[in-house]
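Project outcomes to date are best conveyed with an example. Our students and postdoctoral researchers have been running inverse folding experiments weekly, and each run begins with a structure described purely in tokens. The record below, which covers 297 residues, was selected by the lab manager from last quarter's runs and is presented without edits.
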């Protein structure tokens, strides 16, 4: 039986009891049917009013307790939501601080990173850009330069929220650096052979060539391949402490045939032998020291 049915039966029983009590009191207090009926009715109404008031008081108190129970139940939920918002805001702030710190570290190494990207991004014979070695370099830089300088919580915050943000920031800052740094043909001291090749490709790019490095073994005598105005140029880049001899000129001539190039050049950081200079003049190879003279179709 439902709660409402029980309440109904209780009310009926209460009314019946009140009527009996009122009738019994009337019999003892007055004589005559009309007087007894009037007194019974008055007592019944009085008892009913008192019972109704009592019921309202009980109902009000019960409702007040129920409201308090709901308030007590809802408060922890609201507090948990507030706590979650506070934690999320703290995490967002930590993430922002971590990215700012990483950006500062990247900026400290931006020139080296720019040279490494010049050296490691290349195009194959079909013009397809190969970023694989540059991506490896980025991962190396993150693991060995950035991560040791960030606290564990900061670095984990970056990995959880946006793991690619550091690599994206590296490339963005290099792009900004390339646009703002002055064009320079000077070779930085201590530059590696691979970075020197990348520098050569960048200098050619600044002169309007579409240039990229060939990177390593199997290059058939060309360290940089570039195209401009429908002409293809192959370049051999040499960092020597002594003079550059015939071999470099001969190798770039072999690269000319292999790459079906129109122009050839050798760039070095030192002087050329008299024999190498003569061979270059006869064979049409442009020779340059520190990018002093570069072919222009």
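After processing, the design step wrote out the following sequence:
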């Amino acid at each position: 039986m439902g709660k409402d049915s029980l309440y109904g039966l209780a009310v009926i029983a209460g009314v019946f009891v009140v009527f009996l009590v009122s009738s019994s009191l009337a019999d003892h207090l007055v004589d005559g049917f009309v007087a007894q009926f009037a007194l019974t009715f008055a007592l019944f109404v009085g008892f009913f009013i008192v019972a109704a008031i009592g019921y309202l008081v009980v109902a009000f108190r019960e409702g007040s307790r129920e409201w308090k129970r709901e308030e007590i139940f809802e408060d922890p939920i609201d507090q948990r939501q507030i706590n979650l918002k506070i934690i999320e805001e703290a995490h967002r702030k930590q993430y922002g601080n971590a990215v700012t710190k990483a950006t500062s570290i990247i900026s400290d190494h931006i020139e080296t990173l720019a040279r490494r990207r010049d050296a490691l991004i290349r195009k194959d014979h079909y013009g397809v850009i190969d970023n694989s070695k540059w991506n490896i370099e980025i991962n190396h830089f993150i693991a060995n330069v950035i991560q040791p300088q960030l606290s564990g919580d900061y670095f984990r915050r970056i990995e959880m929220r946006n793991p690619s943000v550091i690599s994206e920031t590296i490339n963005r800052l290099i792009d900004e650096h390339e646009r703002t740094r002055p064009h320079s043909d000077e070779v930085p001291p201590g530059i590696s052979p691979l970075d020197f090749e990348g520098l050569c490709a960048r200098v050619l790019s600044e002169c309007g060539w579409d240039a990229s490095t060939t990177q390593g073994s199997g290059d058939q005598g060309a360290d940089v391949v570039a195209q401009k105005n429908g002409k293809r140029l192959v370049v051999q880049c040499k960092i020597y402490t002594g003079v550059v001899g015939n071999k470099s000129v001969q190798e770039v001539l072999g690269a000319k045939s292999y790459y079906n190039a129109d122009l050839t050049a050798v760039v070095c950081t030192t002087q050329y032998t008299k024999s190498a200079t003569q061979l270059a003049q006869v064979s049409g190879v442009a020779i340059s020291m520190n990018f002093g003279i570069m072919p222009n179709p």
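The first strand starts at residue 122 and ends at 123. The chain has a mean pLDDT of 76. The training component of this project remains on track.
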